[in-house]
Amino acid sequence: MLFNPDTRKILDVNDAAIHLYGYRREEFLKLTHTDITAEPNESDKTIKQTVAGEINRIPLRYHRKKDGTIFPVEISSSTMKLGEETVLCGMIRDITERKQAEK
């Protein structure tokens, strides 16, 4: 997933994200990061830390699918230049099974 760290607008997603979250590509590209996170305040903090180069891995966050299901994710994140714009790249892994096994 690529998104603008200032506006939180989602710029691009791969097929795996489309399948995981349940949105069609056209729907996904109309969303912001705030639409898929179940923890907007915590996510804002980690977005700022990623842009500042302080972190590149978030071991646990909760995201929201199109159907409203909230699920745990692990995120590897980085910044990159897309033209003149700095964007965030998030590699998101559903860790539902891992969390269930830990219980």
Task: Provide structural commentary.
- The chain has helices at 15-21, 25-28, 33-36, 40-51, 96-102; strands spanning 2-3, 10-12, 57-64, 70-82, 85-94.
- It is built from 5 helices and 5 strands.
- The mean pLDDT is 95.
- The radius of gyration is 13 Å and the shape is globular.
- A hairpin with a 5-residue loop joins β3 and β4 (70-82).
- By secondary structure, the chain is of the alpha+beta class.
- The longest helix is centred in the middle third of the chain and has 12 residues, at 40-51.
List descriptors:
103 residues; alpha+beta; five-stranded antiparallel sheet
What is the compact description of this entry?
This protein is of the alpha+beta class. It has five helices and five strands.
Secondary structure layout plus pairing:
Elements: E1 2-3, E2 10-12, H1 15-21, H2 25-28, H3 33-36, H4 40-51, E3 57-64, E4 70-82, E5 85-94, H5 96-102
Antiparallel strand pairs: 1-2, 1-5, 3-4, 4-5
